[in-house]
Amino acid sequence: MNARVLPYVLILPVTLFLCLFFLYPFLLVSKQAFSTGSGFTLDNFREVTSYWKFPTTLRNTFLLAAAVVPVQLALALLMATMVNKMQKGRDLILYVWTIPLGISDLAAGIIWLAIFEQSGFLNSMMNGLGIVDKPVNLLTFQNPGLVFLAIALAEIWRATAIMLVILVAGIGLIPKEYYEAAEVFGASPWKRFTRITLPLLRPSLQTALVLRVILAFEIFAVVAALGGTLFPVLMGETYAYQFDLLNSGAAAAMALIILAISIGFTLIILRLLRVPKGATI
Amino acid sequence: MTFYSKILGAASGLAIACTGMAAQAETLFWSTQAKPVEEAQAMREQVLGGFEAGVDYQPNDGGPWLTRLNAELQAGSGTIGVLGALHGDFSAMNPDDLVDLSDMGVMSASGTFNDLAKLGTDSMQYIPWMQASYIMAANKDALQYLPDGADINALTYDQLIQWAANAHEAAGEPKFGFPAGPKGLKHRFFQGYLYPSYTNGVVRTFASDEAVGAWEAFRKLWEHTNPASTNFSFMQEQLLSGDAWIVFDHTSRLAQAFNERPDDFVAFPAPAGPTGRGFMPVLAGVAIPKTAPDMDAAKSLVEYMLKPETQIATLRATNFFPVVDVALPEDLPPSVKAAGDAVAKMSGSADANPGLLPAGLGDKGGDFNRVFVDSFERIVLAGQDIRMVLDDQKGKLAAIMEETGAPCWAPDAPSEGACPVE
Amino acid sequence: MTSVTTDVAAPDARKAGKFVYVTAVVLLCAWVLVPIYFLLINTLSSPDTVNSFPKPFWPEFDLGSLTFFAGFAGMLTALKNSILVAGMTMIMSIVIGAPAGYALSRFDFRGKELFRLLILLTRAFPLPLLALPLAVMFIQTGLDDTVFGLALVHTTLAIPFAVLITFSLFSGIPIELEEAAWTLGCTRLTAFTKVVLPLILPGITASAIFAFVISWNEVFAAAVLTIENRTLTAFLLQNLDTSPLHLKFAGGFILVVPALIFIFAVRKYLFAMWGIANR
C-alpha cells in the first residue's frame, strides 16, 4: 500500500469510532451552549462567567494545576530514572509506585480525608508523638493554605503514577550505549540525565504532560472530598449547573471553557516539546 | 475461518445479552432515596422482598438518576418502572412525562402533601411515599453546658448560641456542627428554620430588617461552629467521632449515631426565634414515567409502597416516616424513636411555625437553593456586609419568582400570582 | 596528592550516593503505601474504631464491614461485568488505537494536526455531559444495558491514552531500524511485526493498564448505561459517599483490590527491554 493512503487507513478506525461515540454527542451538547431556546446566543457564556464565584473557580483550578503538575513531572522523572537503573526488585518497586493508578479519584478522596480530618490519621500521629495535645482542625475556612496543600498532596499521590508509567515505557527505549559512552567520557549522572535521557525521552514527556495537564483541569472528586465547599473548581461548577441547577446550556458552556483552556495548554506543550518524525540515531 | 467463528460468537453473545434484557420481568425502581448501601440492602430485602412480581431496586446519585430518566423520555422507550425521589426532583420535571395517578385510589393521609403532589396541575403527578424532617441532636456530655433555665425541648436561638458558646469554652474548640459540606443540606436550614423563625417568611421577607437580624444571629452561632463544617454532609459522622457535640441535620442523616450508640445522644426540636419555631418537612414520592415498560406492574408497585406494612418496613429501613395513617409498633430502632419524639415535640410546641416545601419553582429549585447558599457563603464565610449581600441576592430571588410565577407558600402570606420579594 | 584523596573519597561518595538512593526508594515506597495502609486499617476495623480518636496504627482484623459486602446481593455478577467491560475496553482501545499511533509517528499527512486535536478533545470534555445523548442513542439501537455498549463508551475514554502512548513510543524507535528491515527483504508489515512490535510491548502494556483502570473506575456512564448488567463500580462506588464511614472504607478497598491484581499481573511487560536497548 502506498505511503499516501496508508496513514489514512491507519487512522480510519479511530476516526470513525470517535465520530460516532464522541463527536456526535459532543456536537449535540455544544449546540446547547450556544442557545437558550431560540437562535444563536452567547448568553450562557455570559451567565457562567459573570457568576461571582467564577473568577475564584478559575483561579483555583489554575493554581492547583500549576502547583501539582510540575511536582508530578519531577517526581515521575525521578522515579522513572531510579527504577530504570535498579538491578533487582525492579518490577516490584515499579509495581508499588504504580499502585495509586488503580485507585479511583473518589476512593482517593475518601482515603485522604481519613488522613486530614480532625479525628484522622495525621492528628492521631501528631497526638501520639506529643506534637499536639488535642486534634487540630486542619481543613477549615480559616486555613485555605492548608486546604490547598492537602488537596495538592492527595492529587500528587494519586496521579503521579499516570506520568510514571508513560515515562518508564519510554525510558526503556533509550539505547544503553549512549549512557555507556557518556560514562566513558566521564559525564556526571546529572549531565547524562540532561543530555541523554531528557532529549531522547521527549516524545514520552510530551504525551505524559499533555494527558496530565488535560486531566488536571478536570479535577473534581478529590477537591470535593477535601476542600468541601471551600475550594470551588471549574468542573465542580459544571456539574452544579448540569445536575443541581438543571441548566444544561450553562453546563455545556462551562465545559467548553474548560475544553478551550485544555486545548490552549496542549498546543503550548506540543510546541515546546516538538517531536520529530521518527527519532534518528 | 477462526476469525469468522469469533465474530459469530461475539454476535451471538450480543444477541443473548439483548434477549436477556427483553425478558426482564422485575419492575425497575429508580430512586434517589435510600442510597447508603445498608439502606439500599434493607429496601431490597425487607421492604420490597414482599412484592411478588419482583423489584429491581436501584438507588442513584441525582446526576445519573436524572440523565438516565431524561434519556429514556427522549428515546421514547425505557426500562424504568417506578421513580422514587424528593418533591423537589419531581417538581423540576415536565408533568406530561409522568403518568396521571389520580385514579390509583391510594394517597397520603395529608391533604397538604396530596396537593403538593399535583405539582400545580389538577391531577396527582406523584404519590407521596414517605416523609422526614430536620432536627437537632446532641451528645449527652454536652447537656451540662446548657444555659441556666433552658429547656432542651423548647430552646430559643439565643439559648442555642449561648449553649454552643459554653461548649466551645469548655472544650476549648467550637463544638457546634452544621452540614455545610458539598452534599450537606444547609439551604434547608435557612429556608425552613432560620428565616421562618426570625422573619415569618422566606421569599417576601428575604431582604427584610428581620432577615439581617437572622443572619447576625447565625454569624454568632458560626463563631462556635466547628470550622471544618464546610466539609460536613452527614452529621452522624461528626457526632460519632466527637468532632461536633451539638448538630442540626436531616433525621435520616443522624440515624447511624442513634443506632450505634443509642445511650450517648439525644434528639430535640429545632430552636425558636422571634416569630416562632420554624421547621419544614421532607417529602419523597413515587411516580411512574410515561415510558414505563409494564404499566400495570408499576402501578401495583406504587400501591404496594403505600400499604401500611410496607410503610412501616420503609420506616425501619430508611428512617423516613409513613405518610398514611398507621399505628407505629413498639420495637422500632433507636434512631426512629429519637427522631419521632423530636419531630412530635417540634410540631406540637406552642410556638410551632411550620413551613411548607417550595412549590411551583419547576426546574428553578436549584437556583432557589443557590440564592441561600450564596448568601451563606458571602455573609458567613467571606464576611461581607449582610445588608449589601441581601440586597444583591434579592434581585436574583425576585427574578426566579417572576420567571416561574410561583405563588407564596407558608409561612409567607399568600400572594396573587408570583410571590413578591419585599 | 590530589589523586590519592579522590581515590579514597570515591568509594565513600559512592557509598553515600547509594545510601541516598536506597533511602529515596524506601521513602517513595512509603509515600505510596502508607495511605493504602490506612485504608486497610479502616477496612479491618469495627465501626466504633473507625470513628474513634486517636486512630489505631494496627488493624484489629474486624471483618464486619467486609462481611457486609460479601452478603450484598449481586456482587459477583457485578464483578464479572466489570472484568468483562474492562477486558473489552482494553482490547478495543489497543486494536483501534495503536495503528493511529503508528500513523502519527511515521507519516506526515494532511489533517494530522486536526486528527490529533480530535483525540485530545475526547479527553478534555466531561463524560457526564455526554452521557445523555449517548444513552438516547444506545436505547434506540439496543446497545443500552449491555456490557458491550458500556465497553464502547469506556473505549472512547481510553483511546486517547492508547493513541498517544503508542505514538510517543513509535517516535522513540528510529525509523532507520524499519528501513533496514525493508532492505533486508521485509515488507512493511513483516518489518512492523518482527522489528517494531516487540519494541513497543511496554507501550502496549502501559495502554492496557490505562484502559483497564479507566474502565474499572468509571462510575457515571456505568450508572446511566447499565441497569441489569451493573458494573462493580456503579454498584458500589456511587453510593459509597453517602454510606457510613466504615462501609465507605471497606467498599473503597474492595474496589481497589482487583485493579491492583491486574497491574501486578502485567507489570513486568512494562520493562520488556529486548531489542534496541540491549543491542
From TrEMBL, chain A:
Membrane-spanning segments: 5-27, 61-80, 92-115, 146-174, 209-231, 251-273
Designated name of the protein: Sugar ABC transporter permease
Topology with respect to the bilayer: Multi-pass membrane protein
Cell location: Cell membrane
Lineage: Bacteria, Pseudomonadati, Pseudomonadota, Alphaproteobacteria, Rhodobacterales
Main location: membrane
Keywords: Cell membrane, Membrane, Transmembrane, Transmembrane helix, Transport
Pfam families on file: BPD_transp_1
Family statement: Belongs to the binding-protein-dependent transport system permease family.
Native source species: Thalassococcus lentus
SUPFAM superfamilies: MetI-like
Domain of life the protein comes from: Bacteria
InterPro entries assigned to the protein according to its UniProt record, in alphabetical order: ABC_transporter_permease, MetI-like, MetI-like_sf
Keyword Nucleotide-binding: no
All copies of domain ABC transmembrane type-1, residue ranges: 58-269
TrEMBL record, chain B:
The organism's place on the tree of life at top rank: Bacteria
Signal peptide: 1-25
Localization annotation: Periplasm
Pfam families xrefs: SBP_bac_1
InterPro entries: Bact_solute-bd_prot1, SBP
UniProtKB keywords: Cell membrane, Lipoprotein, Membrane, Palmitate, Signal
Entry keyword annotation includes ATP-binding: no
Keyword Hydrolase carried by entry: no
Family as reported in the entry's similarity comment: Belongs to the bacterial solute-binding protein 1 family.
Name used for this protein in its record: ABC transporter substrate-binding protein
Organism: Thalassococcus lentus
